Structure formats: structure tokens, C-alpha cells
Amino acid sequence: MKNKASRVAFNGLLSAFAIAITTVESFLPPTALLPPGIKIGFSNVAVMMAAKNLSFSSAIFISLIKSFYVLATRGFYAFVLSLSGGVASTLVVILVFGDKKGRFGCVGAGLIGAQTHNLAQVAVYSLMIGRAAFYYLPVLSVFGIASGALTGLTLYFSERALKVFNLDKLKSNSAVWRRHHRKEKQKNG
Amino acid sequence: MRNDANGRRKLLRPADLLLAAAIIALSVFGFLMFRSGEGKTAVIEYNGKPVKTIDLSLVKEQYSFEIAGDLTVEITVSPEGIWFSKSECRDKLCIQFGRLTNKGEMAACLPARVSVRISGDSADKITFDGITG
Questions:
Q1: Would you give the distance in Å from CA A112 to the centre of its chain?
Q2: β B106-109/B63-68 pair status
Q3: B125 and chain A: CB distance < 8 Å anywhere?
Q4: What pLDDT does residue A174 have?
Q5: N or C: which end of chain B has fewer CB within 10 A?
């Protein structure tokens, strides 16, 4: 089935993108602009795109693949933080894009994802080092607004650029996809 | 209109702006809560339990000491502040936090499970749980 093949291909493409961007971000030198440990998190664009256009399992798959890549390259502690933030924000972003009424736009989804990522990480961080972890939360939140808005913008505009993939027809049970097939049937029958 | 002409999710919805405003308000509140006021007590914790407190206003000259957490880290204190100066860990994130000078600032070495924060409480208010530093 053509649709299934494109979904598998797109899933692979997004996974590769997530890993590539995670690598690039880990090589960025620490600067005065970004406090230690703070990253923009562009790989979340891949997760959001999967949550929006593919499926629940695809989004979770990409965030897990990313975390295991972090385990292999940056060690256990980076893995624990990546996993906690990644899985929590993926679940919440899936809810945002599953919302039929579309209450939040792409920027809102980015913001919610970034803040959930921060909160989950600080919670796990506090279990390991104690109260000092919460001292970092306001700093993370402020940068989370910038990075969340930036990932949301990137999601919106990269989807327009990826029109060639017919993203609206990828989701297996989406209304658009069903309508598309009904039309095809009518045309042929 | 909830989606744009092609049925796609919109870029920005009113709820997004409300959300951003709420996050900004909470962050400002958090900053005020943690950062306002005088704080001169550096609290060093291992595994979430205080192992050492230093009244920074009493520090006259720079000195360093080691804390044996899951890994050993070296912390340096001077009249201006406190910072991680050496660590056995892999990414040295703890050193990148730089010098802590104001209340509400923190630095941590996750692999060593050692953290430093500057608290507003006086040193005798921090309770030790019978762990030696």
C-alpha cells in the first residue's frame, strides 16, 4: 500500500533528522548566550511532525531512538534526562495535536512541549541531586519560551516546505485520508 | 478559523499567546522567589542531603576542597563566590555553570550527584542528616 510505504519512509526520515540534529547540538560549544545544559531542542520538531502527521507510536519511537542515541554517545546521566524530558513532552504534544478542535497552534504546541520537557527533567534532576534542581527551573522556563516558539515556527514552515510528501494524507486514519480514498474509489468505480 | 486554507494546523492561536504570557508570569515569579533578598550561605549537597555549608561573607581568601560524591569534585570558594573548579566527570557541565555569587544560583555535577546552591537561610538553619562531607 502506497500510503503505508510513505509513512514508513517519512518515519525513517524524521528519525534520521532527530539523530543528526541531536549530534549537531551536542557539538555546539558552551557560550555565554546559553546557560549550561540548555539546548534549543530542534530534534523536537521531528517528534512534533510525527505526532501531527504520522501516529502516536511513531512519535514515541522517534523520541526513544533519540534517547538511546544519547545513551550511546553521551552516557547514562544524559540518557536519563533525555528520556524523561523526551517521553513526557512527546506524550503531551500528542495530546495537543490529537485535539480535534485545534485549540493550540504550532507555536503553542512547541511551547507546551518545551515546558513539559523542562518540568520532567527538573523533576528527575531533583531526585538525583536534591532541591538545587528547582533553582534552575526559572532559567529553563525563560529559555523554554524562546526555544518552544522557535521549534513551533520551524515545524510550521518546514511542513510547508515538505509539501511534496503530501503530509495531510499520511495519517492512516485521518479524515483527509479517508476522503481522499473515497474520491479515488468514486473516480474509478 | 481553526486551520488554514489547506486544513493545516494554524501557526498561532489565541491560546498560544495566553500560554506564553502564563509561562512568562510564572518564570518572573520564580525568579523573584529564588533570587530576591540577600543570600550568602553556600549549601553543598550530595544525593540531595546537605554535607557542607559555607557562610560566604566570612570567607577571607580563596581556597579549594574536595567533595567525594559518586565521583570526586573540587570546589573553590573566594570572597566573590563559589564554583566547581575540577571534576572527574565526562562533560564538565558543573564547571560551565561558572562562579555562583547571588542567592538562587546553583551548579551541579550529575554524575557525582553533588550540587551547590546559594541559599537565603543562615548556615545554622540548614539541617544535616548525619552525613559527613
A1: 11
A2: unpaired
A3: no
A4: 56
A5: N
